[in-house]
Amino acid sequence: MRLALTISFFPFLNSTPSHHQLGNHGKLILKSADCKKISTTMGTTFWNLGVLIIVIVASILKPVISDPQTNLLNRGCSQYNATNFRDFHNNRNATFNDLRNQLSLQNKHFATAQQSRSPDPVYAMVQCRNYLSTADCVSCFDAAVAKAVKCKDANGGRVVYDGCFLRYESNTFYDQSTLPGNVEICSTQTGSRENEFGAQAQALLKDLQLATPRITGYFAASKREVSPGGRTVYGVAQCAETISQSGCEDCLTVAFNNIQGCLPNADGRAVDVACFLRYSETSFFPDNQTIDITPFLRGRGLSKKKVIIIGVAAAGGGLLIIIALAFILWCRLHRKPEAPQKGNIFGATELQGPVAYDFKVLKTATRDFSKECKLGGGGFGEVFKIAFTTMVASLDLFHISKYFPIFVFITLQGTLNNGNIVAVKKLKATASRPKEEVESEIRVIGNVHHRNLIRLLGCSTKGAELLLVYEYMANGSLDKFLYESPHHTSYRGDKRGYLNWKQRFDIVFGTARCLAYLHEQYHFSLIHRDVKSSNILLDNYFQPKISDFGMAALMPEDRSHLSSFSGNLGYIAPEYAIHGQLSEKVDVYSFGVVVLETISGRSSNYKTVEPGRDNLLEQAWKQYESDMHLAFVDETLDPNDCKTDDVKKLLEIALLCTQSQPSRRPTMSEVVASLSICISVSKGRKSNYKNLLPIDNSN
C-alpha cells in the first residue's frame, strides 16, 4: 500500500512576503513574533503526523493472540517405579531442560534428549504442532512438564495436549509407532448438514492419512469446504519425526480408524504414542499454515502404453456391464411390477441406513439355507456364510433361446458386485411386530459404527422371516479359542491355547472400548443385553468385534428377556435375571464374566460345572483372596508371557464388574481408563450371585 502525504510546515510562507519582511539584498527577515508562530505551527504539525502514522499502522497490523492449545487430551504414567528415585529425577529434569533449550533457542518444534549413561537413564521426546509459534510451543511444553512430573517415582509418563505432546521413559522408544491404549476424543456437538460434514471430514482425514507420511517432517494441515459459502472442515495430521515412513502410515491408519467413531460430530481427535489426527468445524490453525497435499496423493506415473491398455480394458468391461444391465432391465420390465427397485447393487435398494437386499438373492446364495452354508446358531437365529463374488460370465441356453439368441447372458449367481464374503443371520421374529417398527429398529442398529462392533450391511424381510447381512469374521468367535463349547458341534476347542497374553488383553480392551461407546459416547445410551464370548468375533488380526448388537430389540414383545441367552445364565446380571431390571450395568456384569473366561480359558456355563465344584466366578474369588492370581490363568499360556501384576489387575477389574449390586460396578468408561492409563481399581466385595439366582440344572 502506497501512502502519499503533502504537508505544509510553514503555511504562512506560501504567500508572497511583504516588503518589510525582506531586508537588504532580498534576504528574509523574521521577527520574534514570526519565529514564535513558526515554532507553534511545527509542533502541532509533527503531533498530527505522529497520530496519523499510529492510526495507519494499527489499521494494517492484525493483533497477535497467543494460544498454546493446552487442552489436555491424555495423560498416563508407567506402572513401574525407578530404582533410584533421586538419580532418575535429576536425569529427567536434565532432559526436560535440554528439550526446552532446543525449542526456545533453536526454534524447533520437535526435539529429543536423553541421559543414557546413568544407571537410571531417561529418554524424552517433545513435539509441538507446526502451526504454533515458538513462544506458544514453549508454553505448551511447560504445561506438559508440570503434568508429567506428577507421575513422581514412575519411570515413564506421557502427556498429550492439543498443541503438543511430551513423553519420557527409562528405555528408548523413539521408533515406536503405536501401542495399545490409543484413544479418540470426540465432541458431543453436531451442527447442520451432518451427512455432508461427516462425508467431507472423512474424505479430508483419509487424504491426510495418506499424504502425511510422504511429507518431509510428517506434518500436514488442510481444510475443505463442506458446501459453497457454508461450513468448512479443518484437519491436521502429524507423526513423530523419529519413526519410519511405514511407522507413520501404521500409526495414522490406527488413528483414522479410531476417529471414525467421532463422525459426524463437530470435532474429533485421535491420539497415539507417535501420531496425532484432528478435525474440527472451527479453525484451530492460521490459514497461512495450510499445505497443498494434492501432490502427495498421486501415485507413481503410468506409462503411455499402460494408460492405453487400462483405457481399452475399462472401455471393454464397461460395455459388457452396460449390455448386462440393459438385458436385466429388459427382463424386469417384462416381469411383474412387484420386483424391487434397482439400486447401485443388484438386488438391493437403499434405506436410510442398511441396504435392503432381495430375499430371493440371499436365499439362492445360501443354497436355500442349507446345512453346508450354516456357520452356527443361537438364541436369536441361525447364521449362514455366503460368498458375494463379482460377476460370473456363464452361457445360459435357456435364457438365450427365450430372449436374445445373439447375446451371452451374464448372471449374478446369488452375488453382489463387491466380492465380499458375508454372514447372513436368519430370524423368525417379526410376525408379531409391525414392519415399520422393525425397519426403524434396523435403521438405528445400522447407523451405529465402531471399530470393535460388527457392521450391519443390510437386511431383507419376507413375511415373518427377517434376514440380516453382516460383515464376515473368518476367525470366528472368542469362545472357540478359549474352551470346548457344548453349544457348537462344528468344533471342540480346536484353537484353544492359540491366543497369547497380549492378544487376550487387546481383546478385553477393544471390547471395553466398544461397550463404553455404546453406553456413553453415542447420541443416546445403547445397551447390548447379550455380551458373551460367543458374541465376540475376531478379525484377521485378532481384534474383537461385538456381534448380535440390537437383536433383543427385534424380538417379539411377548418373549422373555431370558429366552435368547442360549441357555447360559452365567453371563446374566442378577437384577436382570430375577427382576428384569435393565441398565448399562447389565452389560458391565457380562463383560466381567467374559474377562474371567479370557484369563482362565474356562467357560462360565453353569451346566458344565461338575456337582460339588465351584463355578467360574467363585473360583476367581478364591484364587484372588488366596493371592494365587497366576493359578487362575489359562494353563495353555506361557508362564513367562504374563506378569502377576497384570493378571491381578485384570482379575480385579473382572471381579469389580461382577458385583451383585449394580451401583458397585464401574462404568465402562472407567474400565477403559483403568486399562489404558493404569488407574488403580478398588477391591470389590465378593458377589453373592449364586445365592441370588436360582439355577435350573434340569437340562
From TrEMBL:
Domain Gnk2-homologous: 70-173, 179-284
SUPFAM superfamilies from the UniProt entry: Protein kinase-like (PK-like)
MF terms in GO: ATP binding; protein serine/threonine kinase activity
Record's keyword terms, sorted: ATP-binding, Glycoprotein, Kinase, Membrane, Nucleotide-binding, Receptor, Repeat, Serine/threonine-protein kinase, Signal, Transferase, Transmembrane, Transmembrane helix
Domain Protein kinase: 369-677
Gene3D superfamilies: Gnk2 domain, C-X8-C-X2-C motif, Phosphorylase Kinase, domain 1, Transferase(Phosphotransferase) domain 1
Membrane spanning stretches: 46-65, 307-330
Keyword Repeat: yes
Protein name: Cysteine-rich receptor-like protein kinase 2
Organism per entry: Coffea canephora (Robusta coffee)
Lineage: Eukaryota, Viridiplantae, Streptophyta, Embryophyta, Tracheophyta
